[in-house]
Amino acid sequence: MATKERWIFSSMKIEVDAVVIMNGVEPNVDRSFFYATGIPNGLFEGCIAIIEPRRMEVLSSNLEELSSREAGIRTTVFDNDKHRTELLARRLKGMDRIGINAHDLTLSNYRYIKKAVKKTKLVDVTSDMENARLIKQPDEVKKIQKACDIATKAGKEIPEFVKEGEAETSAAAELNYRMMKLGATGPSFVTAVAFGAKSAEPHYMPMQRRLKKGQFALFDYGAEYGRYVSDITRTFICGSPNAKQKEMYDVVAEAQQAALDSIHAGAHGKDVDASARTVIDKSRFKGRFIHSTGHGLGVSVHDPGSISASRDMVLKEGMVLTVEPGTYIKGFGGVRIEDDIIVTKNGCKILTPLTKEFVRV
Amino acid sequence: MATKERWIFSSMKIEVDAVVIMNGVEPNVDRSFFYATGIPNGLFEGCIAIIEPRRMEVLSSNLEELSSREAGIRTTVFDNDKHRTELLARRLKGMDRIGINAHDLTLSNYRYIKKAVKKTKLVDVTSDMENARLIKQPDEVKKIQKACDIATKAGKEIPEFVKEGEAETSAAAELNYRMMKLGATGPSFVTAVAFGAKSAEPHYMPMQRRLKKGQFALFDYGAEYGRYVSDITRTFICGSPNAKQKEMYDVVAEAQQAALDSIHAGAHGKDVDASARTVIDKSRFKGRFIHSTGHGLGVSVHDPGSISASRDMVLKEGMVLTVEPGTYIKGFGGVRIEDDIIVTKNGCKILTPLTKEFVRV
Predict the structure, then answer these.
(1) Which of A22, A29, A39, A41 is the best mutation test for B, with the most CBs of B within 10 A?
(2) Residues of B in Cβ contact (< 8 Å) with A66
(3) pLDDT at B195
(4) Is the ipTM of this complex over 0.90?
């Protein structure tokens, strides 16, 4: 297995002497920092990773020193901002071109690095970092699989604790609890539990709403494990669905299966997206699928890569992506079904094998 | 009560026609977006808030449209990146100076805005946004108090579920569960539960370690409620402490009280920091307090403002800050005691009135 620094540099088209990844203050942290270093613990605000083809070093605050050293990373502790600047300038001295990740670097930190390295050229390597992160290495797949296992196991228990009268935040609490008891560091994002009409808001966060008979109960959640994440959505019904709800569910399930069936190494993301979209647009829910079919998954919930009409890419073996068509009607509700998959030569493997029956709670 | 846009502009020293806040992809979201708009729900990746002295507008993706409108915010939905650029350029047309928040804006998004507004000058208003966010308005204090109430109530139950043999992630699961059952959207950051020697790592995240007799059990956690957060630390002992553990706890408790006693409107942060530091440095734990005494708290866990020797500031009525001295010995363990306070004219009010006795579990 290639070291992360070798892998990153082998994925690069732009030539640089080193890549510098710098974190801001939470939440503005570059997840590439954890991708590259593999450090499983700590916050690392204001810390810097210097990645060279055969060398990696972290400039760490004293708050993170132990976490960095225990991960086997070459670590230098800075005492204050001035000391950090001196260390950075010294490490990068004599280099001609330094890569930075503009997608996640704050403007303040960009200016800080620029000042520290003076006339050395800073080159945006965002797309190269994305390319590196797109194809998951075996050690990454293991962690993602574990994050998926936790979410799948916890998801099986949803019908046990969600019932009429349950509040959204309470249901989210139950789900997070089960994921953490199974070993997750925490939820990978705010666990979305949306009842009734709120299920039509794709990025809804749980509130005090209580579940009523005849309502959809949409759960969009994931686990974080060793910095890697999972991301599942399942939609339930409280009691019996009416005809329109049943039809909506069936259409989305069919769309998701169509997308899954069309995935293989070499397939175009836009074609996979079209497979799902065609099913929905041929139904009475035409135009109600208002987002892309999927996104990359790794150290971030929204990792590089997508299954999308507007941002096409060719799928390759080892990419991990979500497949999550949905259909939404304001005031009525929505259905989304989401799995995490890894692309294989001839198809894909589902990492979240949780039932897709339209389960009644 | 002033509207947020009026408050922001009244806090500004730099003259601009508008402030543009733009979010990246999670986790690189600018919490100022939620501070300014007050929108309680949704992710708002890639969305933009345009703040003028008497007008606020959000350019929203269709995924967040309902969340934005329900918050009573003037909302325009963009269909794609090109459409968003056109809307942004049109809204800012004729303006001379646009403020941006370099501290939280990604370099990619800076370049995106720069391209959209062409020759209009972009001015960094980071310190002005910090000034605005430093003094909490009544509606903010209410939400912070609620986040603190939840964390305080849940904290009272820690001795009920933490005991010998309990795993760190399991204890964190219990605590998060209780906070969410009390109405929190989720933990405000990864709940840190550190047993034994791990309590010496200030930014530790919970792992599978199990609590043993004679070990410290450090809990650093908070609740998120309506986008606002709390942040508490308490350190427990499993069974009976030895003399050194007892002494460490007493010294930190004394240091925290000294800091609290020295807070009032007009006090200097560096003096408050010195009050705590002197107590620790006079003890056998000299030099073991390796971070600042406190930081601001609001829509971010690390909100603008600090109680620090290196980043001094004058405390003012309405600032909300953490007060959290600690003492750490590698291989032995650490103690930290943290409360959230609001600065008042003659002192401070503790928002997290959880016992500071050295509790045995």
Answers:
(1) A41
(2) 200-201, 330
(3) 98
(4) yes
